[in-house]
Task: structure prediction
Amino acid sequence: MRCSERFPISKLNVKGLFLLLFLPLSLCAKIIIELSPVVYVDKEYVTIAQIASVSGAQKEIVSFIQSIRVDLPKSEVSRLDKEDVKKVLRKNFIDLNRVEIKGDRVIIKRKLYHLEPEEIAAIVKKELKKEHPGIEILSLSFSRRPIKILRGGSLKKRLRIKSETKNRIYAALDLYVNGQMVKSLPITANVRFEKKVVAARRDIPSKKVITAEDLYMKKVTSSVYRSHYTDIKAVVGKVAKRSIEKDSIIKRNFIEPRYIVHKNRNVKIVYDRGPIKVELMGIALSNGVEGEIIPVKNISSGKVIKCEVIAPSTARFIK
Result:
């Protein structure tokens, strides 16, 4: 079946136009163009040299005809008949009386990029593990038909994460040729996230200040680690609000900062400016750890001032 799409041609090059204007074909032997039965190409266009052998006595004219470009339709297989070739030559100002075309047609087949389901799965798994180092991929859901893409330049693949839940990742594998996206394949990954979180190495009694020796890192899945700690340093120095059993994961509501100033309790306010040192009494309006800035109400004046916690029940006036 003859392809109904037009075969647009590129602009006539300056050298070819010069040859045709100043070198009459009447002075040349006939040009023979012999069409090939089938050709395979990997670009969006072909030249006459790719689909036919061109011969003749005048080398400059032969070279010009060979360089004429024919743009291809966006299909895997196309057909260029003898009449199509004549139209291409005529548009490039070739005198058809001086040309002999041998062969009735040429079948042009575009080379393809093939991506099999196994290759797609391998790409997706590699990119997901790069994005989430502790992930376990349970299954992948996507169309299992092989992907065929017309060649026309370099093929690049990019996995785009669209959204995530605690056990699923919704993504798309985007395929680009020469920087233009030509295919986007939706993918759903059933996964299990694995991560190490902070746990108790031994029983920790209530009110104990936690040390590094009390803790270790425990591997857990995504369903349990979201409200827990992933860095031992974030727990060291905190105070246990309740008794914590050995091997228990340290939850955020199990501990609290080691406050040395407590809300609504008396605090000594120290005013220290060079030789002047004054101590006043105030009421802490929030809990505070050492080095923390908290609001303190001056009992004598009733004003609220900012103070830095420097010791148990003691804060330094800073403003």
